[in-house]
């Protein structure tokens, strides 16, 4: 049975950890889904890991839709969530409805994710969830605000920590079904996880979140440099390099094809 947002919330109640990873194309999505990953996120990090941009800011809604549709075709079981890219939802509630609606209608994704939990964003989330568009929130380090925040850990002062807790709670009240907590202290993430009836999905937020997410390209060792909280589970860069070297040599030596 395909994963639903209701199931995700039930897993929090049962304290069953929620496995989340990113995907940017059909081939990767199929593998993650066949392994049984719970949530597959078409993260706008694909702007960096798949398209070579310096930040997530340049990617367009059309590009996200193109990738999300490919991912969706590879997924039978997992919940598919698609990031709304920078400036596709911040302008107005109607812009957010238009963008999120396009994602759901044109890709078949189950939900959208957007960054920030300040009052204006909570209002946007409330409108989206009211009209039947499931929303995953994202607070702490929000990479679409890189020009203000950099990629530093957030929530290290009491004031900042209190603000992030308020934002996460406002997203819950606005109807979000889960919230990503990125690069914040583990004790703050634990506190938010305890206060929120909806699941927290952590990245660089310690072990006490209801689920974990990583950028799949980082986990697979496809990126040159990873954030400090990443664990690299495979070195695909090395595997691919070796395979391409072997092929090149065999073509030059006239050993392939035989
Ligand atoms: O774009 C992304 O990959 C993300 C995750 C890191 C949560 O937003
Ligand atoms: Na993202």
Automatic annotation (TrEMBL):
<dbReference type="GO" id="GO:0015940">
    <property type="term" value="P:pantothenate biosynthetic process"/>
</dbReference>
<dbReference type="InterPro" id="IPR040442">
    <property type="entry name" value="Pyrv_kinase-like_dom_sf"/>
</dbReference>
<feature type="binding site">
    <location>
        <position position="113"/>
    </location>
    <ligand>
        <name>3-methyl-2-oxobutanoate</name>
    </ligand>
</feature>
<feature type="binding site">
    <location>
        <position position="44"/>
    </location>
    <ligand>
        <name>Mg(2+)</name>
    </ligand>
</feature>
<keyword id="KW-0808">Transferase</keyword>
<dbReference type="GO" id="GO:0005737">
    <property type="term" value="C:cytoplasm"/>
</dbReference>
<dbReference type="GO" id="GO:0003864">
    <property type="term" value="F:3-methyl-2-oxobutanoate hydroxymethyltransferase activity"/>
</dbReference>
<feature type="binding site">
    <location>
        <position position="83"/>
    </location>
    <ligand>
        <name>3-methyl-2-oxobutanoate</name>
    </ligand>
</feature>
<dbReference type="InterPro" id="IPR003700">
    <property type="entry name" value="Pantoate_hydroxy_MeTrfase"/>
</dbReference>
<protein>
    <recommendedName>
        <fullName>3-methyl-2-oxobutanoate hydroxymethyltransferase</fullName>
        <ecNumber>2.1.2.11</ecNumber>
    </recommendedName>
</protein>
<comment type="similarity">
    <text>Belongs to the PanB family.</text>
</comment>
<dbReference type="GO" id="GO:0000287">
    <property type="term" value="F:magnesium ion binding"/>
</dbReference>
<dbReference type="GO" id="GO:0032259">
    <property type="term" value="P:methylation"/>
</dbReference>
<keyword id="KW-0489">Methyltransferase</keyword>
<feature type="binding site">
    <location>
        <position position="83"/>
    </location>
    <ligand>
        <name>Mg(2+)</name>
    </ligand>
</feature>
<feature type="binding site">
    <location>
        <begin position="44"/>
        <end position="45"/>
    </location>
    <ligand>
        <name>3-methyl-2-oxobutanoate</name>
    </ligand>
</feature>
<comment type="pathway">
    <text>Cofactor biosynthesis; (R)-pantothenate biosynthesis; (R)-pantoate from 3-methyl-2-oxobutanoate: step 1/2.</text>
</comment>
<comment type="subunit">
    <text>Homodecamer; pentamer of dimers.</text>
</comment>
<keyword id="KW-0479">Metal-binding</keyword>
<feature type="binding site">
    <location>
        <position position="115"/>
    </location>
    <ligand>
        <name>Mg(2+)</name>
    </ligand>
</feature>
<keyword id="KW-0566">Pantothenate biosynthesis</keyword>
<dbReference type="Pfam" id="PF02548">
    <property type="entry name" value="Pantoate_transf"/>
</dbReference>
<keyword id="KW-0963">Cytoplasm</keyword>
<dbReference type="InterPro" id="IPR015813">
    <property type="entry name" value="Pyrv/PenolPyrv_kinase-like_dom"/>
</dbReference>
<comment type="function">
    <text>Catalyzes the reversible reaction in which hydroxymethyl group from 5,10-methylenetetrahydrofolate is transferred onto alpha-ketoisovalerate to form ketopantoate.</text>
</comment>
<feature type="active site" description="Proton acceptor">
    <location>
        <position position="182"/>
    </location>
</feature>
<keyword id="KW-0460">Magnesium</keyword>
<dbReference type="GO" id="GO:0008168">
    <property type="term" value="F:methyltransferase activity"/>
</dbReference>
């Amino acid at each position: 049975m395909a994963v639903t947002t209701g199931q995700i919330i039930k897993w929090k109640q049962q304290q069953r950890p929620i496995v989340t990873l990113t995907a940017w194309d059909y081939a990767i999505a199929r593998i993650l889904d066949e392994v049984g990953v719970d949530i597959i996120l078409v993260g706008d990090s694909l702007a960096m890991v798949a398209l070579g941009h310096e930040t997530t800011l340049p990617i367009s809604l059309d590009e996200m839709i193109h990738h999300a549709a490919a991912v969706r075709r590879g997924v039978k079981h997992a919940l598919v969530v698609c990031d709304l890219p920078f400036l596709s939802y911040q302008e107005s509630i109607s812009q957010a409805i238009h963008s999120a609606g396009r994602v759901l209608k044109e890709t078949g994704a189950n939900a959208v994710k957007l960054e920030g939990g300040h009052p204006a964003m909570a209002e946007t989330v409330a409108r989206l969830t009211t009209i039947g568009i499931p929303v995953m929130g994202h607070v702490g380090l929000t990479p679409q605000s890189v020009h203000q925040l950099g990629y530093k850990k957030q929530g290290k002062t009491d004031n900042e920590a209190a603000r992030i807790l308020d934002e996460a709670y406002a997203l819950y009240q606005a109807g979000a079904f889960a919230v990503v907590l990125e690069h914040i202290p583990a004790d703050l993430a634990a506190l938010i996880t305890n206060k929120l009836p909806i699941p927290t999905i952590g990245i660089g937020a310690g072990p006490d979140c209801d689920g974990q997410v990583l950028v799949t390209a980082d986990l697979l060792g496809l990126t040159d440099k990873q954030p400090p909280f990443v664990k690299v589970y495979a070195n695909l860069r090395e595997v691919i390099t070796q395979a391409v070297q072997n092929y090149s040599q065999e073509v030059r030596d006239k050993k392939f094809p035989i």
